[in-house]
Amino acid sequence: MSAIAKYRQVFLTGLQTNLVYRWNFAIRAAFSLLHLVYVFTLWGAAYAGKAEIGGFALGATLTYFTLLLVLQFFLSAANDDYEISEEIRNGLINQFLTKPINYLGYRLSLFFSARLVAGSLALLPVLAALPLLGKYLVFPGTEHLPLYLVAIPALLLAAFIQFIIAYCFGLLTFWFLEIQSFIILSLAVESVLGGQIFPLDLMPGWLYELSRWLPYYYQMYFPAALLTGRITDLGFALQGLVIQTGWAIALLFLAQALWKRGLRRHTAVGG
Amino acid sequence: MPATFARYARIWLASIRYSLVRAMMFRGDFLMWALVEFFWMSVNVLLVGIIYEHTDSIAGWSKYEMLLLVGSTLLVQRLLMAFFWSNLFELGRNVRSGHFDFFLAQPGAPLFMISTRKFDLDGLVNVPVALAVVLYAAHQLQLHPGPGQIAAYVLFIACGLALHFATLLTIISLVFWLQSAKGIEIGYFSLTEFSRLPRESLRGITAVIFVYALPVVIVSNVPARVLIHGFEPVYAAWLLAATVFWVAVALTVFHAGLRRYASASS
Question: Which residues of B touch A (CB under 8 A)?
């Protein structure tokens, strides 16, 4: 079986598995609309009597949060870290040590299948709410086309960074019995420095500049800012893309190192 | 009746004692979780700080009034995390795995047994932090509440805890009808986000849903208002009535689910 056929099969199996939980995804997506109502209310009240906050009008900020909601379902690693942890603890990874399949490739195929199902289902409530949301959404025009093009690789790299960070956290199970607290702590850092709580450009300048050098910036904020016009300078965007690529490569090396060192500690038991 | 109450109190105390011993056995884990909760609380305070860097008022609430509101929400949530979160969160998993049978076989009301089995010290150690946020905001606002106001605040926080418990129980009880509770706890977080909003910020249909139909806004606004504006009988009656009603709804949903539950153990 060719490498592509092998991982395609994993992807298809992942689609089937995730579709079993379609109602859970749908409920989560529906609840996430509530988050959008909260965001619209909070920022709507903050903008009362003001044309701009941080140089952006209310519409631009609401568009940013709406897009962020959709991107979260398409890009965020939802349960991959926990699943990897379970597979290590239960010894299920043993089969990957003797079979001609790469564990990282296997997990990445499952990640993409889960994102496709979750993202598609998340779109449904957003599309249903579009008649209400539509009047608030403002996207940049055709003059922004070069930045839209930069956003395409930025989105793919963002998904990869999301996955590889979750993968690294999952591999920590080789050293720690419980990794949940690490994951939740990382999620909190990611929520702030990834721009999910507030657009990063509203932070003090020095803090924004610092965040640009961290991987969290590239997990969500960077592609969302490119698509919603919060980043308008092409040179600045290309510099971001280079830093993002650097982080993707560095994290890939880290993941490989953790896998190799972790396996040295691992004891495969059973027949 | 007093004997039954005393028996349940003894069971709860025994569970708390066991959880404390367990927390001290895994001290690193305990410290990590305490840090996690502290960080999440800081995120909420940071959001207030960032927004008020760019504006003076949100729906007529000043920065420190908003901080008092957020602090009150955090206080209720830390209490929920300490006493009930793990228990109700695991209810979802236990129903699916059949481990729920274990609770049905115990000599006590199933809801009490599942709600009090674990106690999270990491949640409790952050209660003083949430309280410090409230006290700091009150100090900045130069509030000097009397004993009556403080007693009312404590009562309203207790009502808030009951309301949060009822919300979480109702959402998690959906597991009796769904195949899995995986991810549905997000419903609780989505709804309780509204408790960080001033009531005045919601208008039209959102006010009807989140202020009048659901108790998610008044749960925090009423305690914060009693410190800022003094005792308001209408708000007090509203919160007390909402607490009684929503706890009744949660109990009804849970018991309907319980009747639907088919044992899964061998």
Answer: 29, 32-33, 35-36, 39-40, 43, 46-47, 50-51, 53-55, 57-59, 178-180, 182-184, 186-187, 190-191, 193-194, 196-198, 200-202, 206, 210
How far does Cα A211 stand from its chain's mean position? 17
Q: How far apart are CA B252 and CA B170, in angstroms?
A: 9
Assess contact for A150 and A238: CB atoms under 8 A: yes
Handedness of CA B39, B41, B47, B48 (dihedral sign): negative
Which of A20, A35, A37 faces B206 most closely, judged by CB atoms?
A37
Interface test with A, best of B41, B51, B191 (most A CBs within 10 A): B51
Cβ contacts of residue B145 below 8 Å, gap of 6+? B138, B153, B226, B227
Predicted structure pTM score: 0.86
Complex-level ipTM? 0.85
Instruction: State pLDDT tens for residues A52-105.
Output: 998 899 999 999 999 999 998 899 887 888 889 988 988 888 888 888 889 999
Ramachandran angles phi, psi of B51, nearest 5° = -65, -45
What is residue A51's DSSP assignment? S
The residue written with tokens 């607290």 in the block is A181
Q: State the Cα–Cα distance between residues B11 and A80, nearest whole angstrom.
A: 38
CA A57, A59, A65: angle at the middle one, nearest 5?
Answer: 110
- Whether A166 contacts A193, CB under 8 Å: no
Alpha-carbon gap, residue A82 to A98, rounded angstroms: 23
- Are the beta carbons of A185 and B202 separated by less than 8 Å? no
What is d(CA B62, CA B142) in angstroms, rounded to the nearest whole number? 13
To the nearest 5 percent, what fractions of chain A are helix, strand and coil?
75, 0, 20
For residue range B190-220, list pLDDT tens digits in order.
888 999 999 999 999 999 999 999 999 999 9
A182/B180 touch (CB, cutoff 8 Å), yes or no: no
Instruction: Write down how long chain A is.
Output: 271
d(CA A100, CA A92): 15
Handedness of CA B33, B82, B94, A20 (dihedral sign): negative
* Spatial distance between the Cα atoms of A43 and A61, rounded to a whole number of angstroms: 8
Contacts of A193 in chain B (CB under 8 A): none
How many angstroms separate the CA atoms of B127 and B38, rounded?
10
